[in-house]
Amino acid sequence: FDTSDTSAHAKPSDTDYEPKAHPAVSPDSIVQGLNDGQFTLHYQPVISCAAGTPVGFEALVRWSHPQAGLLLPQHFLAVAETAGLIDRLSEIIVSQGLMWFSRHFRETDLLLAFNLSAHSFHGDSFIDRIAAASRSVDIAPERIVLELSDTGRVSDPTTTLNILTRLRVNGFQLSIDDFGIGYSSMSELLRLPCTTIKIDRKFVTTAKHSEEAQKIITSITDLGRRLGLRVTAEGVEDDWTLSFLATVGCAYAQGYFIGRPMEGKSAVEWVNQQEH
Ligand code: C2E
Ligand code: CA
Ligand code: CA
Ligand code: CA
């Protein structure tokens, strides 16, 4: 990955979204956006449930579209995947995220998580590139979490498993994203060399008013502990839920109650505010 500084500029903040690709999104417009540096990252804080202190961020891609404004992943990711542009996008995201992270947090032990489409593991060059990128910005692979979703549906499971295993051997952390909703969640635990489970936010946002959701969260946390995996909950929208997660022994939490996805500058300020 190219880790020279290309970090771009997204001004507007997240808005509520309606599903489906935005009308302005075509493969050609994505290529244009890639060439013009219109893709940028927002960072959402992750904290320790027990201590309440920052443990890192999840990088979430945004598209600063010249006409449509700030677009969320659901407006363009599917088009990018279908058009075979996801590798180029991931490359930009990883180098941009690592540059930012190294500039501000190299001397800390915070983590940075990236979302990777399982479809983007076409060749082993991915391992070499992310390893070289993390080395060039002096961030240990142990501080980089790769969040995987939809791994049950890749066209070549053997190659994917091979690449994930080698990433793990190289020290990168692997997390099963959206745990609990995929039809293959449980078998992924057996198959994949993961270090973290990320409980799907559907369970977390409903926990406060659903005993069933609470039991599912308790069970997943218990399962994670037995398997020696760290459990993260996303979608924490109120303090009741955060306390509940601490009580059941969930390690990490993320959600609007803790912090929204924000621009790099605000994310740095957020960490500084936590420490004082
Ligand atoms: P995800 O990985 O499950 O990311 C969490 C999503 O939940 C994010 O939506 C985040 O903004 C949202 N969220 C965070 N806290 C809360 C909360 O308290 N309540 C609720 N209701 N939602 C919350 P976002 O940023 O729109 O991303 C959507 C999905 O797009 C992500 O789901 C991920 O699968 C994908 N994605 C995002 N960035 C990337 C990327 O760089 N590469 C790839 N391949 N996929 C990405
Ligand atoms: Ca994720
Ligand atoms: Ca998720
Ligand atoms: Ca997802």
From TrEMBL:
<feature type="domain" description="EAL">
    <location>
        <begin position="23"/>
        <end position="275"/>
    </location>
</feature>
<keyword id="KW-0597">Phosphoprotein</keyword>
<protein>
    <submittedName>
        <fullName>EAL domain-containing response regulator</fullName>
    </submittedName>
</protein>
